[in-house]
Every structure is written in structure tokens, then in C-alpha cells.
Amino acid sequence: MLKRNWKPLLLITAATLLAGGLSALLTGNSMKNYQALEKPALSPPGIVFPVVWTILYILMGISAWLIYETRQRGKHRALKLYVAQLAVNILWPLFFFGMKFYLFSFFWLLLLLLLVILMILRFYQLSPRAALLQIPYVLWLIFAGYLNFSVYLLNR
Question: What Cα–Cα distance (Å) separates residue 137 from each residue in 58, 61, 91, 156?
Fold first, then answer.
């Protein structure tokens, strides 16, 4: 069994969770604003969002750690994609909740989805397990796209 370096796992996962926390902090009391919006039929209760995002950020951190730990060429490019998608991810709530740019946020979410898919493809070349850990993220982003576009249509 390969010896694993667990410290980077904790650091990468903590940094990913902190990025998500920063995003929540920047949007302030946004869930109150969200509750006041007209929402689509499949919109979950507000408490679902922080729970789901916490799980996703943990999975993302573990996935990035698996890439970090690989000794294969190309891991630095893969991790750059990881950081890029995380930066785009952090900004989405600012556009959607903070600025109420619902249509722009939808297109920003499509950019995020594209970056995540590219990241998964790159991750898969280095570690199929790391790529598979990102699948719940993609599924959630697709669902978030439905919610985002529906909010735009229902509240314009």
C-alpha cells in the first residue's frame, strides 16, 4: 500500500471549504432574498444548499488531493483547472445573490460547468477516482442551472 501524505488532504480540503465559506460571507444574508423570490417547482428548502455545498466542497478537496498526490505528468495543469473553476464558483453567488444578475449568473454557471467538465476530463487521465468524485458536483451544477434559469424567468 502506498504511503499517503495526509497533511495536504487536510490543507486542500480546508482551503476548498474556506473558498466556499468566503463565497457565502461575500453574499451575506442572501438566503432571505432568495426566499422572497418566485422559485421553480423543484426548488429545495434553503437549508439544503449549505449541506449540499459542504459535501461537494469536501469531495472536491479529496479529488484535488488525489491529483496532488499523483506523480504523473500534467497534474499541475489539472490543478490549475481546479483553482480556475473554484474561482469561478466563488464569484457565482456574488452575481446571483449579491447583484441579482440572474441571467448573467446563468451564463456564468455555464462557464463554471464547462470548466468543471474540462477539469474532470483532465483528472480522469491522472486518476479516475479523482474524476468520479467530481460527478456529484456536475450533477448539482446542472440542477443549479435549472434553478438559476427558472429564477430568471419567474422574476424578470
Answer: 11, 12, 16, 28
| Residue range 58-86, pLDDT digits in tens | 999 999 999 999 999 999 999 999 999 99
- Name the residue among 51, 17, 27, 49 with its Cα closest to residue 105: 27
Grid cell for residue 26: 461575500
Q: How far apart are CA 147 and CA 131, in angstroms?
A: 25
CA distances from 16 to 11, 30, 44, 86, 121 (A): 9, 21, 24, 8, 20
Going by pLDDT thresholds of 50, 70 and 90, the confidence category of residue 2 is low
How far is Cα 23 from Cα 58, in angstroms, rounded to an integer? Answer: 15
